[in-house]
Amino acid sequence: MKDVCFYFQVHQPFRLRRFRFFDIGKGVGYFDDSANRSIMNKVAEKCYLPANSLLLKLIKRYDGELKVAFSISGTALEQFEQYSPRVLDSFRELVETGCVELLSETYYHTLSSIVGTADFEHQVGKHQKKITALFGVTPAVFRNTEFLYSDRIGARVGAMGFRTILTEGAEKVLGTRSPNVLYAHPNDPSLTLLLRNYRRSDDIAFRFSNKGWEEWPLTVEKYVAWLNRTPQTDEVINLFMDYETFGEHQWASTGIFDFLGMLPDAILKTNQLRFAAPSEVATRRTPIGALSVPSNLSWADTERDLSAWLGNGMQDDAFDKVYALSKKVNLLNDEAIRSVWGKLQSSDHFYYMCVKQHSDGEVHRYFNHFGSPFEAYITYMNVLTDFEARVDRALNEQRQRMPMPEVTPPGSKGSTSQASDPTLYLE
């Protein structure tokens, strides 16, 4: 029996409003509440609510045989709470079935894992607490933002206590090896890697409605036959994709919900395939060997690297500036400022600044609510300029509130010319 592991990413960023240079210092809000509410409600009606309703019916119909996994970013959860509580309730219903596994990730869907600060660990911990508070479960499996992974990131994740991590099954790290087996971290054999079968995943996520695709239309029978024809040595087929595939990226009129509704029955009838959540796969299977990933890997764009978010001058400048604020933000005991800083780190902001062309460029433009990458960059940098000034004001106010040490009169034993400088006590 081969395991079929379905995992869905759920994420919505807090999108920025058009923040002009002349808005700096005027107390103007950064986030486009109207757009965020509108987009959330649209995606809820097109994807989250109908897809969750369908999954709940299927889970009940197959009496525990259908298993799926989700990771839901903290920013998406906050927007569920603010704009669409029905969506949050529908996810709770799914989790309560015991057939839905929730995964851990960075709270703000950030690239913090590649930065040498403790913010990555802080965000993962914050996400764990949020999931536990909302759903009453604690995730045991980790999925980094956009499947970003390397040996170094794996070591950081393993040090936090996770034993399983999901990432991309790209040929540039696998060579001729199969993604349909488990691997282990080269320096930590107890850390298991589950790799996405990107061909079979993208058949649904990207190609399903493409009438120019030679395999269109994709029927359930054809798809399950492909899954069934994998080599006997394969143990698990990891089908990882955005949840918004269902109803948002692939509209209901394409037949995507009908496809999803018929797929479990077709898979279970093979008697060769069964559904399994990531933690079940990791418990049931044994890694066949180590897989080294020396440079950063992701599931985005043709390159499967960081170039969707970093690489051009605008992206690098914005990224460097927002993370340069780390020391200042961490000096403050201000959760509101830390929350804004976290939302400004969301990978989406850098994604909008991408200037790639051809098919990758089309995908970037589809998600970009700005008119161009340059507009996204200018807006972001204006916001950061205003935000840094806000942080500096908060630091000055904090300095003024700090109790001053008693100053020994000049010439007295233990006197120091530095004692009256309050800035020294912030270092």
UniProtKB/TrEMBL annotation:
GO MF, one annotated term: catalytic activity
Pfam families in the cross-refs: Glyco_hydro_57
Disordered: annotated span: 397-427
InterPro entries from the UniProt entry: GH57_Enzymes (IPR052046), Glyco_hydro/deAcase_b/a-brl (IPR011330), Glyco_hydro_57_N (IPR004300)
Biological-process GO terms, alphabetical: carbohydrate metabolic process
Coiled coil: none
Keywords: Carbohydrate metabolism
Ranges of residues in domain Glycoside hydrolase family 57 N-terminal: 6-293
Stored PANTHER family: ALPHA-AMYLASE-RELATED, ALPHA-AMYLASE-RELATED-RELATED
Similarity annotation: Belongs to the glycosyl hydrolase 57 family.
Entry protein name: Alpha-amylase
Organism name: Acetobacteroides hydrogenigenes
Biological classification of the source: Bacteria, Pseudomonadati, Bacteroidota, Bacteroidia, Bacteroidales
